[in-house]
Amino acid sequence: MSETYDIGLGNYDSEIRKKADSDFVSFWGEQAKNLTWFSSWTKTLDWKPPFAKWFVGGTINASYNTLDVHQNSKSDKPAIIWEGENGDSRILTYSDLLIQVQKFANVLKSLNVTKGDRVTIYLPMVPELPIAMLACARIGAIHTVIFSGFSAMSIKDRINDSKSKIVITADGGYRRGKIIKLKEIIDEAIKDSDIVEHVIVLERTKNKISMSAKDNLWTDLMKDAFDSCDAEKLESSHPLYILYTSGTTGKPKGVLHGTGGYLTHLHSTFKWAFDIKDSDVFFCTADIGWVTGHSYVVYAPLLHGATEIMYEGAPDYPDQSRMWNILQKYKVTIFYTTPTALRMFMKFGDDIPNSFDLSSLRLLGTVGEPINPEVWKWYFKIIGKGKCPIIDTWWQTETGGMLISPLPGLETIPLKPGSGTLSIPGVNIDIIDENGTPVPSNTKGYLAIKNPWPGMFLTLWGDDEKYKNVYWSKYANYYYSGDYALKDDDGYFWLLGRADDVLKVAGHRIGTAELESCIVSHNHVAESAVCGIPDDVKGEVIVAFVVLNHKVTVGLDILKHELLNKIRKDIGAIATPKQIYFVSKLPKTRSGKIMRRLLKSIANNEQIGDVSTLEDSTVVADIQKSIDNKHY
Ligand code: WTA
After folding, report:
1. Cα distance between residue 211 and residue 88, in whole Å
2. Residue 544, beta-bridge partner list
3. What is the spatial distance between Cα 161 and Cα 373, in angstroms, rounded to a whole number?
């Protein structure tokens, strides 16, 4: 029996769950009425498995719903309170934001961007990032934001795949006091591109940049831009954005999200999970380059006309108290962060948060990885002073918004440290076995989802087949999430990590296949296998096993250095392995499959278990010898 915490807000609303269970389609139809539609839908759901269209016939605009709808009552209310890493700060009210978005929408139009065009955005965490996204949404262009930690090569792949004719970037961004020269990375990414027609460059750090014929400065373009631009009336399933994410095979996939369903999902979950009130100050620490930033920094808070904090830099810069400083300074009421960040803060010691006034806090959230119960309790006690519910939210880039979470804005249920509690109303989650049969309670299985939900992605950009194969073909009638989970006797979900070859390093999603193909493309490498091993702060870290070609004469130190550089260059620093082991063979089954489980156990110094399916049983001793001989 795990401990329970009877803490929550609001009242239990069993009616809403009953309604959702009896007819999820009309339930979501009711929720969608919370948004402003230009014209109402004629059909709530068109479900031709596995393709779902929500609110067919309805027309809507994401920028209109996040900005225009608040102009009567909240035009002077701060929408974004931004703090730069270097101490700069800016406040943008709902009226400021609308003006900037309309101006930038006109800039995009002047560069011939029209409905359906893709626009790549590679910006630091500055207000111009949501401004650019909302300007795209205003004219029906599809934004594709790339996290500013990705390399030139990763950007090139994404631009080629999405065929973006416009790229928006900055001269640089601050991270740990250093300037990351984003424009230089873009120059490298598009140097041979005949797809990109224009690059828009925001001057954030004022470092020296070279300008070419394609380049335009943000300020020059905005100077004379007209500050009014009507929001396009878009079909509900008009694509809002592409966000690339790692999977089990090949290059990252372009997850494509629509508009009406996605916004409905966000509006409802933000209200239910965070119990948002007009007086709240919301702070989500996610970078907008990831889905949490898209959904719960940009769209959900603005749909509700909330005031939010946006922070540019590292959470522990210039010192370990930066986060608590921000919380105290802006009297943050709702704080949403990751288990990795919390584990880091916990290591810094209790004295730091204890020396700040965090009494404004009333709700705490977490996302991105399983949260260890000790960390949950620390968060609850030290940060929330025992009075704030912890909202452990499970979801994915593909789901668009939360699917499992406590919902204090809707109901009060006891919390259990480490469990996301129940699914949101209107979503049907099962834990199933290999054959697709639901497993009994307290049994580990695969988390799978029956029935579409409104935030569900439309497809993978340009690849309907892959969409079907990756997510919908493993089990009939189920969306396959790739996660292990179990349901306890109270029906609470416990997430138990990935069931596939996707790693979660510091909450970032990394595909082993992508990393392995990068390593193997080094001309001295014959084969490689990558796995994750547990880490105190990052949840897991990457370990790579590398088999070299026969004739390699270069020293291992040099090779290691070259491989690390290659990974940083081809993918980005987030994919850097903590350890590279050079081994003579990889453990394989008789059918030739690499036994990652075994590599994981070896790297982790654990019992290796059953190895009877190994093709060559000497391989284990060989690998252990390489590790002992420090062949890394
Ligand atoms: C993991 C992030 C446990 C999970 C929003 C999922 C979690 C993957 C949780 C998606 C949580 C996310 N507890 N695990 N509360 N939230 N995950 O696409 O493995 O970056 O499949 O979306 O993160 O990662 P993604």
Report:
1. 26
2. 530, 580
3. 41
pLDDT of 12 strictly over 70? no
For residue 405, report the distance from its CA to the centre of ligand 1, in Å: 12
> From the alpha carbon of 392, which atom of ligand 1 is closest?
15
Question: Of 601, 555, 551, nearest to 563 (Cα)?
Answer: 555
Q: How far, in Å, is the centroid of ligand 1 from the Cα of 575?
A: 17
Rounded distance from Cα 395 to ligand 1 centre (Å): 5
pLDDT given for residue 224 in this prediction? 94
From residue 422, alpha-carbon distances to 295, 449, 481 in Å are 20, 13, 16
What is the C-alpha radius of gyration for the chain, rounded to an integer number of angstroms?
Answer: 24
Which residue's CA lies nearest to atom 25 of ligand 1?
396
Give domain 507-628's CATH number out of 3.30.300.30, 3.40.50.300, 3.40.718.10, 1.10.3720.10. 3.30.300.30
Rounded Cα–Cα distance for residues 452 and 27 (Å): 13
pLDDT digits (tens, 9 = 90+) for 324-383: 999 999 999 999 999 999 999 999 999 999 999 999 999 999 999 999 999 999 999 999
Under 8 Å between Cβ of 389 and 414: no
CA trace torsion 284, 289, 292, 295 (10° rounding): 100
- The tens digit of pLDDT for each residue in 76-108 reads 999 999 999 999 999 999 999 999 999 999 999
> In this structure, what are the phi and psi dihedrals at residue 631, rounded to the nearest 5 degrees?
-85, 65
Cα 102 to averaged position of ligand 1 atoms, centre (Å) = 34
Structure tokens at 331: 């009297």
Mutate to test the pocket of ligand 1, among 343, 399, 504 (most ligand atoms within 8 A of CB): 504
Written as one letter, the residue type at 288 is I
**Ligand 1 mean position, distance from CA 56 (Å):** 29
Burial class of residue 173, CB neighbours in 10 A (0-12, 13-18, 19+): buried
The pLDDT, as a whole number, for residue 251 is: 87
**CB atoms < 10 A from the CB of 578, how many?**
15
User: 484, 495, 501, 540: which to mutate for ligand 1, most atoms within 8 A of CB?
Assistant: 495
Label residue 9 by pLDDT band (50, 70, 90): low
Across 502-509, average pLDDT: 94
For residue 6, the CA-to-ligand 1 centroid distance in Å is 25
- What ligand 1 atom has the least distance to the C-alpha of 366? 15
Q: Please identify, by atom number, the ligand 1 atom nearest to the C-alpha of residue 509.
A: 20
Residue 614 is classified by DSSP as B
Nearest-CA residue for atom 5 of ligand 1:
396
Bridge partners for 142 per DSSP: 118
Nearest CA to ligand 1 atom 8: 396
pLDDT classification of 481: cutoffs 50, 70, 90: very high
Q: Which among 232, 267, 256 has a CA at the least distance from the CA of 136?
A: 232
Q: Which residues line ligand 1 (CB under 6 A)?
A: 245, 290-292, 367-370, 392-397, 420, 481-483, 495, 498, 504, 509
Q: Where are the domains of the chain?
A: 507-628
Residue 173 has pLDDT above 80, yes or no: yes
